[in-house]
Structures are given as C-alpha cells and as structure tokens.
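1st attempt posting a full record on here, be nice pls
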Amino acid sequence: MLIEELEDFVDRNGRQIDRRGLVAASAGALVLAFAAPLAAAAQSSTPEAEAEADPTAEAEADPTAEAEGDPTANPEAHYGEGAGDFTLYSGRNETLVGPLVEEYAEEAGVTVDARYGGTGELAATILEEGDNIRASLFFSQDAGALGLLADEGRLAALPDELLDRVEERFRDPQGRWVGVSGRARVLAYNTDIFAEEDLPASVRDLTDPSWAGRIGWAPENASFQAFITAFRLIDGDDAVRAWLEAMIANGTVNYGDSNIAIVQAVGKGEIDAGLVNHYYVYAVRREEGEDFPVANHFFAAGDPGALINVAGIGLIEGADNADAALAFADYLLSDEAQEYFTTQTFEYPLIEGITPPEGLVPLNEIGHPDIELGQLADLRSTLALLSEVGLL
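the predicted structure (as tokens):
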C-alpha cells in the first residue's frame, strides 16, 4: 500500500510516541516522554507506519509545475533578499512537505537543515533547548503547539507583511505565529449507507445508541486532541469527559493515531463513519479510486465538530538566522507553496487568489466554533483528560 499517514505522531523508526508523557516541568516547560509502543486498539486495527497513506504518491515531483508565471517562483523576486541557510524543526511529515522544502532550497540556493518529528516532540525540544535552540523556525501541524510555545515566550513576533496575508482568525492575535494551510474536522461517512441529510448535526449526537459500534476515532492523533481541546473550551471539562465516556461505552472503534485507517475502514464497510480531518478522504480516494464510497460531512455551525485548524509557522525567539527563516516563511505564504498545499495535500489555502480543492466546502461556509485557535494551547489538560478515560 502506497498510503502513508499524514501528520501522524510516528517517529522515523515506526515507533509510536507516547503522549501520556506530557507534563509540566518546574519552569512550566512541556516535556514529552517516549515509551514503548501503545497497545494496539480496536481489535489491533491501528496500522503500522509503513502501511499508511502517502497522499503525494501520485504527485509530480516538481511542486512548482502549476505555478509558472508566479513572481514568487523567482528567488530574487520576493523571498530571495533575506534567503540563507537555517535550521527548520518540522512537525509536518517529511513525505508531505519535504518536496516543498527541497524546492525552496534549490530555488533560493540555500541549505535548509530540516529536522522532522512529531509536533509535540519538537515543541518539547524547543522548550528543553531554551537559549541553546538549534532551530530558527518551527513548522507545526496544528495551532495548539504554536500557541503553547507562544505562551511560554518561545516565539518572536512576525512581520506584519507576513501576518497580513492571512485572515485574522488563522493567526496569533499577538503576531507570534501564522497559519499556512487549513484543515476542517469532519465526519467521514460511507455513501452506500447514508444520504448526507441522514447524518447528525452535532458531534454530540454520536453518543446515541443507534450509533453503537459504527463510529471510528483516533484519540492518539494531534488533530483529534486539538478537537477535544476546542470541545472543552465550548462545553467544559465535565461535559466532554461525559461525552468521551459515552462514546467509549457506545463501542466507538479506536484506530490509535491513524485517520487514514479510519477512512479506509469506512469505505470498506468495516465501520459506517469516523471523525477525521477533511483531507484524508481526498487522499484515500486518490489511492482507492474516485468510486470509493466515502465522503465528508460537515457538522452544523458552532459545533465543536466544525473546528477549522491550521498548520502554521513560528519564528523561534532569539534564534540565529532569523532573516533566512523569515524568507522561508514568506515562501510558504507565496502562490507557489499555497498551490502545492491545495493540489498535493488537499488542504485549504490561506491566502487570497488560490482556489481550494474541487468540491470542498469553502472556508467561509464552515461554521467554526466561537473560539480562537490560540486557545488550543492547553494541551496538557486535554491529554490528562484522555488519559483519565483510558484513551491514552
């Protein structure tokens, strides 16, 4: 199988990272402990890393193929002025964004020393390294980790010229991080079983006995954890704990950290629906064929299940080579890079003038709940809650 999981928390040796190790150090820093692989959940349904999906498997190697004529494709035209060598910590999967990093380095004539790992792992590294940090830029798979680092004083303010390219809701109010691509939480469902009008308006409805044993989730995945953080902010810890316990009692199938496995199981009829990010459906359908019976259902406006999150970047406070790092940040918000995210990873572009993936509900039609993405920084409490109910 060519499919390799997007944005997961599996390290490069295929070992899962144990999120139960997230604790506060005496100085308030985040520490992630690594333990033996988590026990397989959901009848051993969590796939091994090498068996998971690569959404770029059929992509052309050159991410600029559709960007001819774009002035940002010329390193001298925009980002070239400050371009130089720097170190990048990337919580985004190397298979996913590596071609883009390499293309930038080639165009700008620089060396990008990229270290790839889990977003939580690298956030912990940034806190632990302190003033001895090697990286100049952090590329995070979600806003929560960026918010945590910003709150800990580890991110510097970004230039207004970068921030102003993105809507206010997709960047830090204090300008310490900015989103570069968007993703929506959805309920992936089997189109042979449901008409969309038969699906629930709220994620809260999935505890109904009629859904017993029919839903999949991936509680070890960072995107699910960000959703739970948003849920807590909206409904409170007690209500979310009750929801989690009701979902467990209702036989919700646990796929560990693999959203791809959920979508595959939905299309194969092993379960009827699952909680994932929108782009997993696109990735699986590209691999399995357009007639694979799975589609996205968006929850009602304001629902916790309608969360829109971002992958984003933050400049490390006091980092060396800040200008070089900002040149790459500039590139990620160029037409060229935004087209790459749209056409190769099926994410929402965050700058004006770029068309989102065909058939995808426009961002302005999704009823994101009334929270700011920076509030997703409270990862510790979310992980503690998931551990309390036995999901981590």
